[in-house]
Amino acid sequence: MQPILDCNHVHYSYHTLQGETPALCDIQFHVDEGEFVSIVGPSGCGKSTLLSLLCGLIVPESGAIYFKGAPVTEQSRRHIGYMLQHDHLFEWRSIRKNILLGLEIQKKISEQTLLEADHLLKLYGLYRFKDARPSQLSGGMRQRAALIRTLLLHPDLLLLDEPFSALDYQTRLKVSDDIGGIIRNSGKTAILVTHDLSEAVSLGDRVIVLSPLPAGIQNIIATDFPKGLSPLERRNTDAFKDYFNLIWKELNPHDK
Fold first, then answer.
1. What's the pLDDT at 121?
2. Is the distance from CB of 177 to CB of 229 less than 8 angstroms?
3. What is the pLDDT of residues 72-106, one digit of tens each?
4. I need a labelling partner for 170 at 20 to 30 A (CA). Which of 4, 46, 62, 104 fits?
């Protein structure tokens, strides 16, 4: 079966007046439909740059990225959802109007899409806050609203760039469990960039480990947990500890 995303020997460098800084070197991996892939690596190694390449915001210097078998284009980017570190909800709009923003921009507001929006608000526990302003919601609730806004556009691929990093630890655990479950239950394909190894292991079907700058793929580790376990439940297994320690050693080879 053809992968939904194929990153084929991609290279990318930053260019300034001071010269060229190689950022990504020979990045090669694929993502299958319905798969959840986590990407980890040292700080500043180019993880977010890789996401920008995958969705076509920037172009590789060499190599190619294919989405559903074709090069990423302006048209195909409409089928890729991007969830950032911050929710970027507008305070002057209600939660309901915030989640409808993408549909408004794409001129897709209809009776059907409004019904779907209300359904998702009810499904994920936000319907009674639909007329509230973002400042009246907790950080976790705001992130759920941001995800609903993305899901309403029916993306085939979700790119998640440290979406839980602004939350406190306890909230982060709960929200990553909630959103991980939402993504799996919706059958979406997702790529998560994170500094949190526990998050990467508990959410990912595979974990891609990047090397220091210029980043290459150091290892790709497939996880194997019993089916049906939530991300929080995965954290309580012996396998979770093994995967965590394996990835830790990959990123910290000089630690004993």
1. 93
2. no
3. 887 778 889 888 777 889 999 999 999 999 999 98
4. 46
- Helical ranges in the chain per DSSP H: 47-54, 95-99, 101-105, 111-123, 139-151, 169-185, 197-203, 231-234, 238-251
Residues counted in the chain: 256
Among 143, 183, 147, smallest CA distance to 35 is for 183
- Copy the structure tokens of residue 5: 């995303």
Report pLDDT for 238: 93
Calpha distance 95→130 (Å, rounded): 5
Residue 55 in this model has a pLDDT that exceeds 90? no
Q: Which of 203, 126, 130, 128 is nearest to 160 (CA)?
A: 203
CA neighbor of 127 nearest in space, from 141, 112, 107: 141
Which residues are CB-contacts of 152 (< 8 A; sequence separation ≥ 6)?
99, 100, 102, 103, 113, 116, 117, 120
